[in-house]
Amino acid sequence: MPPPDPSRPGVLHLDLDAFFAAVEQRDKPSLRGKPVVVGGVGGRGVVATASYEARVFGIGSAMPTGQARRLCPNAAYLAGRFEAYRRVSSQVMGLARELSPLVEPVSLDEAYVDLSGRGDGRVWDVAAVTEVAERFRADVKALTGLTVSVGAGGSKLVAKIASDLRKPDALVVVPPAEQAELLAPLPVQRIPGVGSVSAERLRRHGFTTIGELARAGESELVRLLGRAHGSGLWALSRGIDPRPVVSEREAKSVSAEETFGVDLTDRRDLEHRAARLAERVTSRLRAQGLAGRTVTIKVRRYDFQTANRSRTLQHATSTSREVARHARELLSGIDVSDGIRLLGVGVSGLTGYAQADLLSDADEPEVAELVEEEPEEEAPEPSAGWRPGQDVEHDDHGPGWVQGSGTGRVTVRFEGPHTPPGRIRTFADDDPALRPADPPVYDPRA
Ligand SMILES: [Mg+2]
């Protein structure tokens, strides 16, 4: 895959606006224009997405849901409907692939597109990119009812920053001649790979903005950070990002591995490392909206003999705690006393999200605690009760969604994407006329 042409704004970053919350507002007319929070609704849950109306109250992604409830008690708190989100995501990714075969999905609601992948020889100047991107945005709105923000530039870095500039429902095309000016005032953390540790180190050297890095010059950054980091960071500070847009065929497995500088013999150390690898693998799974049923470890011994061990679970998972536990158990069957030089953890047998996973994973204990012994996981309960936001159907009242439940009652609002705001009714929570249902179908012609 070639790096993008930095002289043309032909790389797009697509980002659906407040995605999970927007799908909820589309399918639940009574929530339109209201604060909606999708996330873990239990005691230790965190916010996955807040609608723009909820963000006004200071609610944002990764905030504990309990804190969000204190900031805005009247918001609708919903558990999330990943089947509905996946359906919309695949429609949008399909439209993106009509733009160019070079589409790299980053998560359910984000993707990069390199227009040069069309191979039709078209020159991607600002006018041409604007025309194609506006048509794409209109197509997404028509097909799904949702708004998507698009940034375009000469690299992934610039495209991503541009898509965020005027959210929601905006297109920002950055001419290559203006990208340095765009980046200059932004904090260094906006550069991919610059986390809080790097940012703190840069701050101690007097760098807080991207423009300050660009002005420092390559040799100064190399002196401070070493050749590899210094040169790369200097290029990125001027918007030069060689990462290609990589179109992935449907991933068959996701794995991560680590080669050690010295052969490791300490089992506890290896278990820690397996837990960290599990965390890397599962965060990539979750970013792609995936979960998997088979956990594999790969172990290369001091003499380069490699062993793979795997086990298949009853259900797909994307939680790091669960993958780490299975990896650890697989590792327990392997003799490490002569030294291990490489350890890998993988997940295969991929499907869409296991519903409960994404939003509960952030509650997990730190990696360091993962090596503690855990009780054997129970099989998932067939009837876990009604979840807020869940799609249901009632024999007499038709389709609706669960507004709340407790003390033996369940409250349902009967409405759908093409109805006016609906009425609420309350039932016994074991009412035989009420059952879970598939997400409602959104009809673009309605
Ligand atoms: Mg988004």
TrEMBL record:
Its cofactor is: Mg(2+)
Residue ranges, compositional bias (Pro residues): 437-446
A GO biological process of this protein is: DNA-templated DNA replication
Residues at the site labelled Substrate discrimination: F20
Q: Where is the composition biased (Acidic residues)?
A: 369-380
What organism does the UniProt record list as the source? Auraticoccus cholistanensis
Q: Which Pfam families match?
A: IMS (PF00817), IMS_C (PF11799), IMS_HHH_1 (PF21999)
UniProt catalytic activity: DNA(n) + a 2'-deoxyribonucleoside 5'-triphosphate = DNA(n+1) + diphosphate
Question: What residues bind Mg(2+), as annotated?
Answer: D15, D109
GO cellular component terms given for this protein: cytosol
- Its EC top class is transferase
Q: Residues annotated as region Disordered?
A: 369-446
Residues of the UmuC domain = 11-195
**First-listed, main subcellular location of the protein, grouped into a coarse class:** cytoplasm
NCBIfam families cross-referenced by the UniProt entry = PRK02406.1, PRK03348.1
> What does the record note on quaternary structure?
Monomer.
Q: Which CDD domains match?
A: PolY_Pol_IV_kappa (cd03586)
Q: Which UniProt keywords apply?
A: Cytoplasm, DNA damage, DNA repair, DNA replication, DNA-binding, DNA-directed DNA polymerase, Magnesium, Metal-binding, Mutator protein, Nucleotidyltransferase, Transferase
Q: What is the active site of this protein?
A: E110
* Name this polypeptide is given: DNA polymerase IV
What does the Swiss-Prot or TrEMBL cofactor note state?
A: Binds 2 magnesium ions per subunit.
Q: Which is an annotated GO molecular function term of this record? A: DNA-directed DNA polymerase activity
